[in-house]
Design brief:
The chain has about 400 residues and is mainly β. It contains three helices and 26 strands.
Length: about 400
C-alpha cells in the first residue's frame, strides 16, 4: 500500500503572505495557535524562516525534531509573515503535542520544536516555540515550493532532501485505487473506508501490470462485484463529489466518452462519469434539475488538446451549490453550474473503470491512480494532490 491514510493532509488556509481565519472562503474551526522563535536561535535562522508547518500529535515523544511527524492528528502551515493560524478541524479534547518546524526558501529546516498542550475546546489558544537548528535543502536540479514546503523537480514531483514526500489530501476520501498490486485480477480499494469496493478485472489477459500502474491494452472492464453503496450514501448526504485520476491515455481518438471511471448500469443511466472524448476529458453528474439527468447530462468537457498520450492529472469537482470545476494538471480548465440535487442517485449501481457495463465504451491506457472524495476539493487541495504525484 502506497499511502498512509492516517495522516491528515495539510490544510490549505494561507492567503498571500499571511494566514487569517476565513481566508479563501475556508474558516478554520479548530484551536488557534501562535508561533514564536526562542531568543537563543540565531537571528539569521529566524530571518530565513519563510514557512512554518504546525502539527498536532499524540505526544511530543512521537516526533523527531527536524522531521515531519507520522502519524498526526491535524496539520496546517503558516507563512513567515503570518505566525498565527488555526487548525481546520476541531480535535477531540485531551492532551497532545504541538510540533512545528520552520523552513527557508531552499526547503532547509532551520528550526523545530514541540510543546505539550491540553485542548479543552475549539476556542483554545496554543503556543509553540521553535528553538533547535537543522540544515537541509534541495538538490541542485530542484527548486523549493514555499506553498508545499517540498523540493520540486521539472516533472511536478517532489523529492530531494527537503523532508518526506508531500502528503495527499485525506479528508473526505472514500475510494482509492493505486493500481500497485503488480499482478492478479483484483484492484484493491485502499481508501480504508468501509465497505471496501475492490475492482475485478474481467479479462486479465487484456491488461499488463507494472510496479505502480495497470495498462489496459485491449478492451475489458474493471468493476465492483456489487453496488458501490458508500459512494451514493455519502454523496447524497454531502451533495458534493470529487473524482480524481492519474492516467496516461493510449491515444487521443477514443470517444464515447470512453469511460475512465463511472458509477452506472448502462450507457444511459449513471450517477457520475469521468471519461475521455478524443482530445478532451469529459464529466457527467446526475442531478434532478437537468434534462436527461438519468445519464448525468449535460456533459462538461475540458478544452481541446488536454487529453494527450502523456501522464495527466484530471480532477472533477461538484459542490453542493451546483458549481463544478474540471482541472488538468492542477490548473482549472473548465467550470459549469449544474442545477438540481442528488435525490435521484441510485445506490445500486456498481463502479466501473475502463469501460461501461455494456462493454461498448472502452478506454485504453495506463491507470496510475483513481480517487473519489465525498466533498468538493478546493483549488489548493487539487494542487496539493498534483504536486504529490501518483
Amino acid at each position: 500500500m502506497r499511502f498512509a491514510h492516517e495522516i491528515r493532509a495539510l490544510s490549505w488556509i494561507a492567503c498571500a503572505a499571511a494566514l487569517v481565519a476565513g481566508c479563501a472562503g475556508s474558516t478554520p474551526n479548530g484551536p488557534s495557535f501562535g508561533v514564536s522563535f526562542d531568543s537563543t536561535l540565531a537571528r539569521s535562522a529566524r530571518d530565513r524562516a519563510v514557512r512554518v508547518e504546525v502539527y498536532l500529535v499524540d505526544s511530543c515523544a512521537d516526533v523527531t525534531l527536524g522531521m515531519r511527524p507520522v502519524p498526526v492528528v491535524a496539520s496546517t502551515y503558516v507563512l513567515r509573515d503570518g505566525e498565527d493560524g488555526a487548525f481546520d478541524d476541531t480535535p477531540d479534547a485531551g492532551d497532545y503535542g504541538l510540533y512545528a518546524l520552520a523552513q527557508d526558501e531552499d526547503c532547509a529546516v532551520v528550526a523545530a520544536g514541540c510543546s505539550p498542550v491540553t485542548i479543552a475546546s475549539s476556542n483554545d489558544t496554543l503556543d509553540v516555540t521553535l528553538s533547535t537548528f537543522n540544515v537541509d535543502g534541495c538538490d541542485s536540479d530542484q527548486t523549493c515550493s514555499i506553498q508545499t514546503g517540498n523540493c520540486v523537480d521539472g516533472t511536478g514531483g517532489t523529492g530531494g532532501t527537503g523532508g518526506m514526500p508531500l502528503m495527499r489530501v485525506d479528508a473526505g476520501l472514500i475510494l482509492l485505487y493505486a493500481f500497485d498490486e503488480g499482478s492478479g485480477s483484483t484492484v484493491a480499494d485502499q481508501s480504508g473506508v468501509l465497505p471496501e469496493h475492490d475492482l475485478i478485472v474481467a479479462d486479465p489477459g487484456n491488461v499488463a501490470w507494472s510496479a505502480n500502474h495497470l495498462t489496459i491494452n485491449t478492451a475489458t472492464a474493471l468493476s465492483t462485484a456489487g453496488a458501490a453503496t458508500k459512494l451514493a450514501t455519502r454523496a447524497k448526504a454531502s451533495g458534493e463529489l470529487t473524482v480524481e485520476a492519474w492516467i496516461n491515455p493510449a491515444n487521443f481518438t477514443q470517444t464515447g466518452p470512453a469511460r475512465i471511471i463511472s458509477m452506472s448500469t448502462d450507457t444511459g443511466n449513471r450517477n457520475f462519469l469521468l471519461g475521455q472524448s478524443t482530445s478532451t476529458y469529459a464529466a457527467r453528474f446526475r442531478a434532478d434539475g437537468e434534462l436527461d439527468w438519468a445519464n448525468g447530462n449535460p456533459t462538461v468537457f475540458t478544452t481541446a488538446g488536454t487529453a494527450t498520450t502523456a501522464l495527466t492529472h484530471v480532477v472533477y469537482t461538484h459542490s453542493s451549490d451546483g458549481a463544478e470545476v474540471l482541472y488538468v494538471d492542477g490548473v482549472e480548465n473548465q467550470t459549469f453550474m449544474r442545477t438540481g440535487g442528488l435525490t435521484p442517485w441510485d445506490g445500486t449501481y456498481p463502479i466501473l473503470v475502463a469501460n461501461e457495463a455494456t462493454r461498448d465504451r472502452a478506454w485504453l491506457g495506463e491507470l496510475h491512480l483513481i480517487a473519489v472524495y465525498d466533498r468538493a476539493l478546493d483549488v489548493g487541495e487539487v494542487t496539493q494532490n498534483f504536486m504529490a504525484g501518483p
